[in-house]
Amino acid sequence: MSYTGLGVYQQQPPKRPSRAPLWIALAVVAVLVIGGGVTAFVLLNSGQTTTTAPGPSSTTSAAPEEEWQPVDDSQAGLVYEVPPSWESTGGSASGRIRLSTSYVSRPFQCQGRSMIQAQAMSGSIIDNDPEKVGTELVNRIAAGGYTVNGSPPEIAEPRVQPVDGDAVRVSVEVTPKSASACYAPKATVTAVALRNGSKVSVFVLNVAEGGPHVAEGPSEDQVQRILESVRLS
């Protein structure tokens, strides 16, 4: 896929039929993110005896959670997991970094556009500095994905967190200067970069936070699960 601003991209034809471009959501309406699950309530009788015959007992249980999708990007040398509803969209490039795999959250419609709340990508580059690669990638995606009507977003200073071994996690908070009713008020772009022989393997997660369609994207717990699942294959 190729970026054309605001997270829009064209899908690759081999995997699924082409459709309208998908846009990463960003907006002025802040909506509370509520991590969800199904809670089962079981009503228990007091156990007192009565003169009437007891009715048949029944139990209520939560529906089993769907299995997450394992992603094995052999070209990047990475494996990770994404939620079951996410869709594969093929590869692309971001500057000098080739992104060989991409998954997006469930698309939704807003004002005639097909949009998404989150995207996960992985790739690699010949380099020996994971922090430099991760920082370069998050800044490029933040600037390209959240420039609206020619106005670049505000991008905070990168936060760098060492991970086990020769790996780092780099994240930036993004605030667009222009938005509309479809979009979320901010975003976070996070990369996990790992030294892998003569190259750096890198994973990046782009999440629009808040907005009227926040339920279509990952919860905070899901974001952490995705990031913590990244490892060398």
Report the C-alpha radius of gyration, rounded.
Answer: 21 Å
Q: Low-confidence spans: pLDDT under 50, at least 5 residues?
A: 1-20, 26-55
- Which topology does CATH recognise? Protein Transport Mog1p, Chain A
The number of strands is 15
Shape: globular
Strand content: 35-45%
Summed over residues and divided by their number, the pLDDT gives a mean of 78
Tell me the span between the first and last alpha carbons. 24 Å
Provide a short characterization of the protein structure.
The chain is mainly β and 233 residues long. The chain has a single domain (22-31, 69-232), classed as Mog1/PsbP, alpha/beta/alpha sandwich (Protein Transport Mog1p, Chain A, 3-Layer(aba) Sandwich).
Can you offer a commentary on this structure?
By secondary structure, the chain is mainly beta. The chain has one domain (22-31, 69-232): Protein Transport Mog1p, Chain A. It has two helices and 15 strands. It has helices spanning 130-145, 220-228, and strands spanning 22-24, 69-73, 78-82, 87-88, 92-94, 97-104, 108-110, 113-116, 118-126, 154-155, 159-163, 167-175, 186-196, 199-209, 231-232. Strands 4, 5, 6, 9, 10, 11, 12, 13 and 14 form a nine-stranded antiparallel beta sheet that branches. A three-stranded mixed beta sheet has the order 1-8-7, with no helix packed on it. A hairpin with a 2-residue loop joins strand 5 and strand 6 (97-104). 38% of the residues are buried. Residues 1-20 and 26-55 have low confidence and may be disordered.
